[in-house]
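Researcher: I'm preparing a figure for a lab meeting and need a structural model of a single chain. I don't have an experimental structure, so a prediction will have to do for now. The sequence is pasted below. Please return the structure as tokens so I can convert it later.
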Amino acid sequence: MFTKFPLILARSIQDDNHWGNQMLYYSAAMKNALVRYAVFLLLAASLSAAQGQNASSLKTEYLDDFAETCKHLDQLSQAIPANKYAWRPGAGVRSVSEVYVHIANGNFLLLSLTGVKLPAEYFPNLPTGGKGKPDTQAVFKRMSELEKTVTDKDAVTRMLKSSLDEVRNRFSQLTAAELDQAADFFGEKKTVRRIYLRIFAHVNEHYGQSVAYARVNGIVPPWSQKPE
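Model: Understood. Here is the structure written out token by token.
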């Protein structure tokens, strides 16, 4: 019996070494897993912070550039004489006033796709369509009416400024998560952010058109005038 003790002791030591090695292995594996998890959390936090910074940068850059376009539109709409607001380059083409009202209409319409209500001052008593929203055809009909009826310079510039201010005010309040929310763009799935980019593109398109209108009528945009 005692002759077998060294063998039993040796086997026990081997077993202890085996379990000790396993424990060291699992301990090391656990440490590695915890390190990887900690690194993951740090990366996730860094990514989240970077996304927040990117969203903040986007808002700042958007608002800065949009403010410049708004300033130019305001200056140009004021520089064009009231008697030129009915001028148009040809039959079937929008007049000066119609271009500015069209910009305003576009701003209000696109904002409504992000959940902002159409202003009752310009879109009163619209019939509702699906999901309780204003009927699309009724909205477009009203937009066409506004282009033909809002023609006085003061009324036109007030409507234009109101729409541009609404875009800036609404956009400045949005969070990164809200910019990522889904929005229905006439049957196409977009994000709220994409709608605001579309607003900017549309405004700039017709801003360029209004500059051309002014130049044809011999009006130099105020920001391009050379100091005397």
